[in-house]
From TrEMBL:
Pfam families: Ada_Zn_binding, HTH_18. The keyword Transferase applies. The keyword Transferase applies. It comes from the Bacteria. Its cofactor is Zn(2+). GO terms for biological process: DNA repair; methylation. This is Adenosine deaminase. PROSITE patterns: HTH_ARAC_FAMILY_2.
Length: 189
């Protein structure tokens, strides 16, 4: 059930610079100069941006002639439970701007809502809802720094049902308001 996620090159670049394990298994970073590919969370020295290419499928990156990193071992198979969690994460990333309920996610991956919530929390230490909020806030943060959309437009664009909820969740996850975040990024802080 592997599904390509909808992230731009810049968004994927931000994730590898941050060594974000949230995106492991959803895309791979290939370095043209070394012919090595890694997970987004790999702690190896970061390559130059111009030498990077992103792939959504491990078979595709290997067919392109890249070999697996010995440090992060991206070729090591996940357990069936972790593959299900990855499918849920890919679903959330592709549906983040829609109204998504637990029953929709469970139906998509073919398990009960109860089992999904329990398994997802065991593997990620988060509920699917809190994970979706993180994805939405990450996308909002990207839009705040790369577009001139208003905070209201961004809150709607990333799928929040109300601006007040957007502000509350953004502040909880980023420790500042969307307006403060945009100003800090513009001032280089």
């Amino acid at each position: 059930m592997d599904v390509a996620i909808k992230l731009s090159f810049e968004e994927m670049w931000e994730k590898i610079i941050a060594c974000d394990p949230t995106y492991d298994g959803l895309f791979f970073t290939a370095v043209k100069t070394t012919n090595i590919y890694c997970r987004p969370s790999c702690r190896s020295r970061k390559p130059k941006k111009i030498n990077v290419k992103f792939y959504h499928d491990i078979d595709e990156v290997e067919r392109a002639g890249f070999r697996a990193c010995k440090r992060c071992q991206p070729e090591v198979e996940d357990s069936p439970q972790m593959r299900l969690v990855r499918d849920v994460i890919a679903f959330l990333m592709n549906q983040y701007n829609q109204k998504v309920e637990l029953k929709d996610i469970a139906s998509h991956v073919g398990v009960s809502s109860y089992y999904l919530e329990r398994l997802f929390k065991k593997e990620t230490l988060q509920t699917p809802r809190s994970y979706l909020e993180k994805i939405r806030v990450d996308k909002a943060a990207f839009l705040l720094t790369s577009t001139s959309l208003t905070n209201l437009e961004i809150s709607i664009e990333v799928g929040f049902q109300s601006p007040s909820n957007f502000y509350k969740v953004f502040r909880r996850l980023k420790n500042c308001s969307p307006h403060e975040y945009r100003n800090m990024q513009e001032n280089g802080n």
